[in-house]
Amino acid sequence: MIFDASTLPEGELTVDLCVVGSGAGGAMVAMVAAEAGMRVVVLEAGEFITPDDMTQREEQMLPKLYWDGGGRTTADRQIHIHQGKGVGGSTLHNLNLCKRIDPGLLASWRRDRGLAHLPLETWDKLYREVESLLSVSEVPPDLRNASNRLLQTACERLGWRWAALAHNRTGCVGSGFCALGCAFDAKNNAAKVALPRAIHAGAQVLTRCQAVTVEHDGERVTGVLARALDPVTGRAFGRVRIKASTVCLSASATGTAALLMRSRVPDPGGETGQSLRIHPAVVAAGEFDEPVNAWHGIPQTVECTELLDISGQSHGKRATRLWIVPAFGHPAATATMLPGQGGDHRRWMGRYGHLSVLTAMLHDHTRGQVRPDGETGLRIDYQPIPDDQKELLVGLRACAELLFASGARRVCIPTETPIVLESPNEIRKLDALQWRPGLLQLTAVHPMGTVPMGDDATIAAVDSQGRHHHMRGLWVADGSLFPTSIGGPPQLSIYALGLHVGRALVASR
After folding, report:
1. Terminal alpha carbon distance of the chain
2. What is the Cα–Cα distance from 33 to 84, expressed in whole angstroms?
3. What residues have CB less than 8 Å from 215, skipping those under 6 apart?
4. 377 within some domain
5. Does 204 reside within a domain?
6. Rounded to an integer, what distance in angstroms lies between the CA atom of residue 66 and that of residue 60?
7. Residue 113 belongs to what domain range?
8. Same domain for 162 and 226?
9. pLDDT of 211-269, one tens digit each?
10. Could you read off the pLDDT of 265-300 as tens digits, one per residue?
């Protein structure tokens, strides 16, 4: 059953397992545990949103589907961090890209962090199970929209590596509103696939219920203290106490770390919250003579991997860490990045149907920080290190080069003072850019790595089964567990870790 905690602001519930967060990781843990006979409750700070509730309007869906209405930023406001909420977490609004972590990166994790419970063959088995569960398939050529075909054309003209992407949709009608939730219920996400199975097996979900602290006696967990959230203001009120001998945190790489720190969970190695990776991204927009209508169809179906070399084998070129995909925005989001004011801005928006946008996401080495802020808030600090700054500027240039190669008549770079390039010859202007705070509009959609798993308890807080080294009964199952950035979409791997942690949790009883 699904209950709204804002209608039950005071209360106490006793269960075997309390899962905090209902996204890819938490939903899988809840499904495995409930089907194994455990009494499970899932706490979700967002609301229960069905396909019928998804209106495809930015001003209505952004506050429902995203933390801070889509306005979450780093503490210095230099980077927008988009994170989802609602029953299903970020799987409600994500663009359904499914890609495995590079095997070379997995091998390096095992070498550097131990990870005895996650050899490559275990990852492969988990991936195959999750891909089957989510009905993952490659997006066929006839479903690639004009914007994605332009990227493919550019790569072919430049001789750059590209590939078709895989996704977890069935029955897609190509509405293009994926980032605002799917009104057609075509996403095989946590809310559609895993949570119904958990609920059918007896699990309960409390919506508008935000965990405040993990309660413990210093050695083992005793439950979770949460607050109900007002459906209009989001203000915390009332108290909901969950008594449980087992707790699994799946509140995202920001939420999980903040909750652990607020709860004063022991961490002798001091890693919790100190190694945030986010895949910061730059964007460039190309204007074309012919209509692109990039909002039609599936938003992301083609990737450019010419500048992505996670293994360090760059085929004679300088190793880089950039993953390039289309990233078109809906009208309000697009308006914020276009240059000019008044009539000049209006003319750009008048060309909305002729724009195509590319983004270069960075496989970052920067270690950001997350810390709690008050009873329910959190603070994110992240300033790209020099090597990452250089890579982002390379990514900006690469996006401009690709857009011109695909036939753009001009390219807009949303720097602090927007740059408009009128021809490919002007790309060299970008070489003169010097990094400074606020120069670029940076966005991130993949927070990860704040509680990196490792089998050495003197260093890591959590082992390679998701079990906390220093607090009995405490587990973690979300992108927090990644030891580094992964250089691609994380949802498939978070589902896989949720399945892995869920099974270990059940086996430990």
Report:
1. 24
2. 24
3. 221, 222, 223, 224, 225, 241, 263
4. no
5. yes
6. 11
7. 2-69+81-135+181-273+451-507
8. no
9. 999 999 999 999 999 999 999 999 999 999 999 999 999 999 999 999 999 999 999 99
10. 999 999 999 999 999 999 999 999 999 999 999 999
